[in-house]
Write a structure and sequence with these properties.
Distance between the termini: 61 Å
Largest sheet: 7 strands, mixed
CATH topology of the largest domain: Nucleotidyltransferase, domain 5
Strand content: 15-25%
Number of domains: 2
Shape: globular
CATH superfamily of the largest domain: ATPase, nucleotide binding domain
Radius of gyration: 22 Å
Helix content: 25-40%
């Protein structure tokens, strides 16, 4: 029998279930899209049906187990998108789910005064806004008071998945960092913050450390999946923190997580906040560490949607091949990626190219421009991070699916003038991070990842010229919109 772990990873775009060897090697992965519904009572609100999502997870789990006959599942854990939550009623019934990109609380942001917002930043490490869970709860309470009255518990999506597996409620510390109800430095729920947002602390479950055993899998699933009733359910956590963990960074290292969004983070021993209130400080899944973060926004999502437009029937390898044939850039783009020290995000974007339209302009040119936009925004946010805390290493770690693009890796390395280091299996970073947590909880020895792949910086002078062009375009869009 091959000992293995089962990892559930609920991202923004899709849900994945994977089986890994206890060393962390990914054996098999199945995925499906996460389905959202717009809520017409708000200008910018999305929800999902938790029970539908759970049925998807059950189905995907059955598929991966069928593809890995003979494995013995030692432990199960979950990771999920940050800021997403599930609300539960009496007897643990799942009522409704809100994803990270639900902004139903936006019209109530003004209820928190400027002075209170700065105080919230000091306690939570982030400037309060509708992205975070407290405002989702406020928006739900204001427009669905009867349903809100039924809420008995709120959990992050990963904690909810672990509750479904074990019957034991909890809230992992890194996920709790995203609620605006949690004292990040104090590592506890904050009565003061609960009072400020008028949210009862009674709906907040016990805080739990990632990498600890929550309990055993429920008999229902042990029987259904033909796994041992002694299979441990391990506390997982936020997908960003698990992806970071997969790179095995040291304190003071910088990690770029190129997923649906692109967090650029530094591993910190001390709670550190930005006097300009531009960056975030979060708890890491390592219980005594923090991560200081600047985020380039929905970079990966932009790239995915452009692929659907320009390369609907081809794989990413075709894109890379066509990008390699470009001798000079034919257009420049700014697509709404975020820069931490900008007061207002760009909500309009576009491509700029010479007129009349050149015969050299093709679909690869537009993708090149999108990848350059991502690299430039990573550079901007990396610089923001370095203003808050010094960084001297000649390398950064990188992981997740966006880094499969060779040209993006080269762009980023050349623009920040640092080596890019990638661990084996970096494409499945949050899954591998979950496997490391399971190994810690069960006493297994996980692989160290071996020698990293290294991308060396080059073309710095050429990139500096192109960067100036990109800055000019972004500045022009700000003036127009």
């Amino acid at each position: 029998m091959n000992d293995a772990f089962l990892i559930i990873d609920i991202g923004t775009g899709n849900v994945r279930v994977a089986i890994t060897h206890v060393t962390g090697e990914v054996m098999v992965v199945e995925r499906d899209d996460v389905h959202y519904t717009a809520d017409e009572r708000y200008p910018s609100a999305l929800r999902f049906d938790p029970e539908m999502l759970w049925e998807q997870i059950i189905s995907l789990t059955e598929k991966v187990l069928q593809q890995a006959p003979g494995v013995a599942i030692r432990a199960i854990t979950a990771s999920s998108q940050r800021e997403g939550i599930v609300l539960l009623g009496a007897d643990g019934i799942s009522l409704i789910g809100f994803p990270n990109h639900d902004h139903r609380g936006r019209e109530w942001e003004h209820l928190i005064s400027k002075e209170d917002k700065s105080h919230v930043y000091k306690l939570t490490g982030r400037f309060p806004g509708s992205l975070f869970s407290a405002f989702k709860l406020i928006g739900f309470r204001e427009k669905y008071p009867e349903l809100y009255a039924k809420v008995k518990t709120v959990m992050s999506i990963s904690d909810w998945a672990q509750y479904k597996l074990s019957g034991i409620a909890g809230y992992e510390h890194a996920q709790a960092s995203e609620t605006l109800l949690y004292d990040v430095e104090g590592k506890r729920w904050s009565p003061e913050l609960c009072s400020l947002f008028d949210i009862s602390a009674l709906i907040l479950p016990e805080l739990r450390n990632a990498g600890t055993i929550l309990g055993n899998v429920l008999p229902l699933y042990a029987s259904k999946w033909k796994i041992s009733a002694q299979t441990a359910v391990v506390v997982g956590g936020a997908d960003t923190q698990l992806a970071i963990k997969s790179t095995r960074p040291s304190v003071d290292d910088v990690v770029i997580v190129s997923g649906t969004t692109t967090p650029i983070v530094k591993i910190m021993k001390e709670y550190t906040i930005d006097r300009q209130e531009h960056t975030w400080t979060n708890r890491h899944t390592d219980k005594d560490l923090f991560i200081l973060e600047a985020n380039a926004g929905v970079t990966g999502l932009n790239y995915q949607r452009l692929k659907e437009i320009f390369y609907p029937n081809e794989g990413y390898e075709v894109i890379e091949k066509e990008l390699a044939t470009l001798t000079a850039p034919q257009c420049m783009a700014s697509l709404g990626s975020l820069v931490a020290d900008e007061k207002h995000p760009l909500t309009k974007g576009g491509f700029i190219f010479d007129t009349p339209v050149s015969h050299l302009l093709n679909r690869a040119c537009f993708v090149w421009a999108a990848l350059w936009d991502i690299a430039c925004c990573i550079k901007e946010n990396y610089d923001c991070l370095c203003k808050v805390t010094s960084f001297r290493q000649d390398y950064v770690w990188a992981c997740s699916g966006g880094m499969q693009s060779d040209i993006l890796k080269q762009f980023v390395s050349g623009r920040i003038d640092r080596k890019i280091q990638l661990r084996k299996g970096y494409q499945q970073a949050s899954v591998r991070g979950g496997a490391i947590l399971c190994a810690e909880a069960t006493g297994e020895k996980s692989a160290d990842g071996g020698d990293p792949e290294i991308i060396y910086p080059k073309n710095q002078d050429q990139y500096a010229v192109l960067y100036a062009e990109w800055k000019e375009l972004r500045s022009g869009l700000k003036k127009i919109f």
